[in-house]
Specification:
The structure holds two protein chains of two kinds. By secondary structure, chain A is mainly α. Chain A has a single domain, classed as MetI-like (MetI-like fold), CATH 1.10.3720.10. Chain A is built from eleven helices and no strands. In chain A, helix 5 packs across helix 7, helix 9 packs antiparallel against helix 11 and helix 10 runs antiparallel to helix 11. The relative contact order of chain A is 0.14. By secondary structure, chain B is α/β, with parallel strands linked by helices. Chain B has a domain of about 60 residues: CBS domain Like (Alpha-Beta Complex), CATH 3.90.1280.20. Helices cover about 35% and strands about 25% of the residues of chain B. Chain B has a six-stranded mixed sheet with strand order 6-7-8-3-9-10, sandwiched between helices. In chain B, helix 5 packs across helix 7. Chain B is globular, with a radius of gyration of 21 Å. The two termini of chain B are about 30 Å apart. The model of chain B has no long low-confidence stretch (mean pLDDT about 90). The chains are: A mainly alpha, B alpha/beta. Chains A and B meet through helix 8 and helix 9 of A and helix 2 and helix 4 of B.
Chain lengths: ~260, ~300
């Protein structure tokens, strides 16, 4: 009995659960909130965004973020691993500058350059998001690998591990909490930035925002922004749990 | 087992090790000693190719070490260092099993070996097997470090100031353990230290390095009684040389058998240096001696401390 009540309490007291409930309610119940938005924005004829269902927008948004983050993680980690190798050390400054430029370049400007070349599709949006999200991942990977104690590396080499074994068994596991922190930052940035994909005709949670902005419909903007914000909070909390588990599992072992 | 002939190593044009000739026999406990910057660590690391020498030849098991793949060579040599370098994300068991894992031993064999080593180094397997390094004291961590170095039963054990960061009591205990392991297994051990007492206590042969060259090598007794240069004499200490000589012999060597005396007995395995301390502390000239099994062995007389060393 006691265990049962404590589990109930844990679920009830879990902020992540409540945020998810609020998110789902908003996504599936937006159309029934018409009365609320009517009351808030009495001047608007149609105060609820109905062109697409919010569920389909969420899926499109997550796909966009998922694909671009995946690409950013692969490129960022490979680059980070590369420049911390003996052979790649010379390229570190160059790579860091390039990636930092990717982030200073506004994603809207990337779209403006990429769309005429590639046409209207999700590709320019993905490129813009990848460029924008690379920096935290690269920095996390470099910082994480550099935080590995040199004694652990000396022993790894001294007991006869190959370079690949040193990387996969020692460096990456020990660097993983810092790398994950970088990925977390990158993904959260991406969830917010993915809204601009709507400007080039790609469906995302940015669609109500962009349409709302061009049609002076503040209610649409509010609806899109609310769902994006809740999505970002949920993903951030999920990452927090993951990194905590990682720390309990292994890296609390750090002295 | 390991020979150096005319070996040199330069860093940025400066010689850190110069023209070293060294022969380390199988089963020998060799201690490389010297001040910091004398090239002793570099010499050690050239053996497992963590540092590649650039002149001369080093052989291991009668083969030039370049003939081995560096990884294979290292897996045949245990390696322990001052900063221990336990992998913080692995348990004690996983840390000890590092090399057997690399050598792809079967699981059951690895488990048994870990248990055996933990027992050998006085770490309760039940209690410590699943612990993480940060949950251990410094001394326990280095026990794990030594166990890891011994895990695959390597032909050679290389130790780079392994006890340098430990407190004196823990250090003495671990020195004792390593001496015991050497006696039991007859393994070839090469140890680097700057601690003269450690060298005298452990070494079969001491190699004194200075500025990248071998100044003198020989048994601990040779180094104390026949120093080749004033530097050697200074290094091993002029004023307390006698005390150091006492640390080379054991109580059992000087005990007059069959005699008896009153008072708390001392162990035959104690060094004469420790016995001297007991004499002074107890204000006595006669101490009863017992052997390992607790049997009375005889009496140590104070005057016998200054007797001539045998074989001198």
């Amino acid at each position: 009995m006691k265990a049962g009540t404590s589990r109930v309490r844990r679920v009830v007291c879990d902020p992540l659960g409540w945020v998810i409930v609020a998110f789902l309610a908003l996504v599936f119940g937006m159309s029934s909130l018409g009365w609320l938005f009517h009351a808030l924005f009495p001047a608007l004829d149609r105060p609820v965004y109905l062109q697409d269902s919010f569920a389909s927008l969420v899926i499109a948004h997550l796909l966009l973020v998922g694909i671009s983050s995946l690409i950013a993680v692969v490129i960022g980690m490979l680059a980070g691993i590369g420049v911390t190798r003996r052979a790649g050390r010379e390229f570190r400054a160059l790579v860091e500058t390039l990636v930092a430029m990717g982030q200073t370049f506004p994603p809207v400007a990337v779209l403006a350059v990429a769309v005429p070349v590639m046409g209207f599709s999700e590709k320019p949006a993905i490129i813009a998001l990848v460029l924008y999200g690379l920096l935290p991942i690269l920095q996390g990977t470099i910082a994480g690998i550099e935080s590995v104690p040199s004694s652990a590396r000396e022993i790894a080499e001294g007991v006869g591990m190959s370079r690949w074994q040193i990387l996969s068994r020692v460096e990456l596991p020990l660097a993983s909490p810092v790398i994950l922190a970088g990925v977390r930052t990158s993904v959260i940035i991406n969830i917010g930035t993915a809204a601009i994909a709507a400007t080039v005709g790609t469906q995302s949670l940015g669609s109500p925002i962009i349409i709302g902005l061009s049609g002076f419909n503040t209610a649409y903007v509010l609806q899109g922004a609310l769902v994006i914000a809740l999505l970002a909070i949920i993903v951030d909390m999920a990452f927090e749990r993951w990194s905590r588990r990682l720390q309990y599992g292994q890296s609390r072992a750090q002295r | 087992m390991i020979t150096f002939s005319g070996v040199s190593k330069h860093f940025a044009g400066k010689a850190v090790v110069q023209d070293i000739d060294l022969h380390i026999a199988r089963g020998e406990f060799t201690v490389l000693i010297g001040t910091s910057g004398s090239g002793k660590s570099t010499t050690l690391k050239m053996i497992n190719r963590l540092i590649e020498h650039d002149r001369g030849q080093i052989t291991f098991a009668d083969e030039p070490i370049e003939k081995f793949r560096a990884q294979d060579l290292r897996r045949r040599m245990g390696y322990a260092i001052q900063s221990i370098g336990l992998f913080p994300h692995w348990t004690v068991e996983e840390n000890i099993a590092t090399v057997p894992q690399l050598l792809k031993w079967p699981k059951a064999r690895i488990r048994d070996r870990v248990t055996e080593l933990m027992t050998l180094l006085h770490l309760d397997p039940q209690q410590f097997r699943q612990r993480y390094p940060h949950q251990l004291s410094g001394g326990q961590q280095q026990r794990v470090g030594v166990a890891r170095a011994l895990a695959s039963d390597p032909e050679v054990l290389l130790m780079d100031e392994p006890f340098g960061a430990l407190d004196p009591v823990t250090r003495a205990t671990l020195q004792h353990e390593i001496a015991r392991i050497h006696q039991m297994s007859g393994r070839t051990i090469v140890l680097v230290t700057h601690d003269i007492d450690e060298a005298l206590a452990l070494a079969d042969r001491i190699v004194l390095l200075g500025e990248g060259k071998i100044v003198q090598q020989g048994t601990p007794l040779d180094m104390l009684t026949r120093p080749a240069t004033p530097f050697v004499r200074d290094f091993f200490g002029r004023s307390d040389m006698g005390i150091k000589l006492l640390s080379l012999a054991q109580v059992g060597d000087r005990t007059r058998r069959g005699e008896e005396a009153a008072g708390e007995p001392i162990a035959a395995s104690m060094t004469l240096r420790e016995a001297l301390s007991v004499f002074v502390a107890r204000h006595t000239e006669r101490l009863p001696v017992i052997d390992e099994s607790g049997q009375s062995l005889g009496v140590l007389h104070f005057s016998d401390l200054i007797a001539e060393q045998e074989g001198e």
